[in-house]
Amino acid sequence: MAKTRDRTEDFKDAVHTSAVSSGYTESKLAPVMASFIMRKPTQRLPFTKASLKTLESINELEHFIVRHQKDYLNLHRTTEQERDNIEHEVSVFVKASKEQIDILKNRIYDEEKHENATRWLPILSDGSHADEVAHKHGVVLILSERLHSVTSKFDQLRSIRIQDAINRAMPRRKKHSFPTTKSPEVLKSDFTEPEGLELSSEPIRVQNQLLDDETLALQVELTSLLDAVQETETKMVEMSALNHLMSTHVLQQAQQIELLYEQAVEATKNVELGNKELTQAIQRNSSSRTFLLLFLFVLTFSVLFLDWYS
Q1: For the chain, which residues make up each domain, given as ranges?
Q2: pTM higher than 0.70 for the full model?
Q3: CATH class of the structural domain 46-189+202-259
Q4: For the chain, which end, N or C, has fewer CB atoms within 10 Å of the first or last residue's CB respectively?
Q5: How far is residue 235 from each of residues 1, 160, 190, 214, 239, measured CA to CA in Å?
C-alpha cells in the first residue's frame, strides 16, 4: 500500500510564491499565512444565539434543582417557607424558558411568512431553505423535550413532599379525636359531696370548670389547625396537578412541533415534485404548440398545392 505524504508545507510554499509574484509584501503576507493556523470563528445567527441562551437557562434550572434537592426534601434543613420559595424559583425558571421557546417558535413562523411573501416559490431549487426551517423546528423540539425532562424531575420531588405531608397529617387526625367532655350536670353528679362538705368542694368545682373551658378552647384550636393543614394539603395537591398539567402541555407542544417538522419535510418534497411537474408541463406545452403550428403550416401548404394543381 502506498504511503501518504503530507503536502501542507508544499501548499504553503505555493501560496507564498503566488502571493509574492502578485505583489504582496511580507507584512501583507503574514495575516494570510496566519489564517492557515488560526481560523476566525464563524458568526452565529440570532436564532442560534437565542437557542443556546435557552439551553443555558434550562441547564441552569436543572443545576438549581439538583443543588436544592436535599434542602427541599429534608424537613430538618429548611422550613416550609423556604421550600415554597424553591418552588417559586423553579416556576419562574420554567415560565421564562417556556417563553423563550415560544419566541423561537414564533420567529420560525415569521421567517416562513416573510419568505413566502418575498418569493413566488418558497423553496429554493436545492432545498436549502427547507432544510434550514426543518433544522430550526428540530432545535425547538429538542429544547421542549429537554425542558419537559427537567420539569418531570421536579414533579417527582414535589410528589414526595406532598406524600410526606399527607403521612404527617394522618397520625395527627387520629390524635385529634378528643373524647366528649362531660356536661356540668354530670360533673356535679361526679363530685357530689355530703352536705357538710359543700363549702370545701366549691373551689374544686370552679377548678374543674376552668379545666373544662381550657379543654374546649384547646379542642377548638386544634380543630382549626387541622382544618388549616387540610387546606394546605389541598392547595399543594392542586399546585402539583397544575404543574403536571403544564408539563403535559409542554410535551404535547413538543409532539406538535415534531408533527410540524414532518409536515414541513413532506411539503418540501411535494413542492419539489410540483416544480418538476410544472417544468414538464411547460415543455409539453411548447412541444404541442410547435406541432400545432407545423400541422397548420403543412395543411395550408397542402391546400394551396391542391388548388394550384387543379
Answers
A1: 46-189+202-259
A2: no
A3: mainly alpha
A4: N
A5: 76, 15, 46, 32, 6
